[in-house]
Write a structure and sequence with these properties.
A six-stranded antiparallel sheet has the order 1-12-9-14-7-4. Strands 8-13-10-11 form a four-stranded antiparallel sheet. Strand 2 (40-43) and strand 3 (46-49) form a beta hairpin. It is built from three helices and 14 strands. It has helices at residues 20-33, 78-91, 165-168; strands at 11-14, 40-43, 46-49, 53-58, 64-66, 69-71, 97-103, 110-113, 126-132, 135-141, 149-153, 158-161, 169-173, 183-189. The chain binds 2-oxoglutaric acid (AKG) and fe (ii) ion. Fe (ii) ion (FE2) is lined by residues 113, 115, 171. GO terms for molecular function: catalytic activity, acting on DNA; demethylase activity; dioxygenase activity; hydrolase activity; metal ion binding; oxidoreductase activity, acting on paired donors, with incorporation or reduction of molecular oxygen.
Length: 198
């Protein structure tokens, strides 16, 4: 399925990327395989723990700067490497890194942003796999506060954002007190210009 109403920018959903059984297995493998961290981020001059756990995996040269720090990629785990192969086959695109997010419950979230860091180049494609409990995903046009599109991210679903989405749109995964379960999200990226280390 593809979006027609987000011009410029197109989203593609592959609802049956993974069966429920496969997605369950990946979820539990990644829960234990990943080296989860909770970095601090500075918001309006004050430091806060990010409201989710994260880890950055990738090829050895895929240094990525986000939340104010350069992150050295951890080496692909067997599960992440297998999923990357399948994502590349499904999308026909290459990815050399994956940001892994762990939303422990509905209190965890990701605020409004675009994935437009300079490392990703001017027109980055992103492939995002959802595992675990359903969460809402919102999009708004840059410069607007009105949510334009909102949908559920489902267990085993792969969402592909094309190279125009980040320049024109922001997205978020809002807090939801109705959600009690956990979710893991894998966002595959292609680092074109590796960051330097501080
Ligand atoms: O959890 C999600 O589905 C979104 C993650 C995201 O936007 C990101 O990692 O940049
Ligand atoms: Fe994002």
């Amino acid at each position: 399925m593809r979006s027609d109403d987000l011009q410029p920018g197109t989203l593609y959903w592959h609802d049956d990327f993974a069966s429920a059984a496969q997605a369950d297995q990946w979820f539990s493998a990644l829960q234990t395989e990943c080296a989860w961290q909770q970095p601090q981020v500075k918001v309006f001059g004050r430091w806060h723990p990010t409201p989710r756990l994260v880890a950055w995996y990738g090829d050895s040269d895929a240094a990525y700067r986000y939340s104010g720090q350069t992150h050295r990629p951890l080496a692909w785990t067997p599960t992440l490497s297998r999923i990357r192969d399948l994502v590349e086959q499904q999308t026909g695109r290459r990815f050399n890194g994956v940001l892994v997010n762990y939303y422990r419950n509905g209190h965890d979230s990701m605020g409004w942003h675009s994935d437009d860091e300079r490392e990703l180049g001017p027109a980055p494609w992103l492939a995002s796999l959802s595992l675990g409990v359903e969460r809402r995903f919102d999009l708004r046009r840059k410069g607007s506060t009105r949510i334009a599109v909102s949908f559920a991210l489902k267990h085993g679903q792969l969402l592909l954002m094309d190279g125009q989405c980040q320049a024109a749109w922001q997205h978020q995964v809002p807090r939801s007190l109705k959600v009690s379960g956990a979710r893991i999200n894998l966002t595959f990226r292609h680092i074109l210009h590796p960051a330097s280390y501080d």
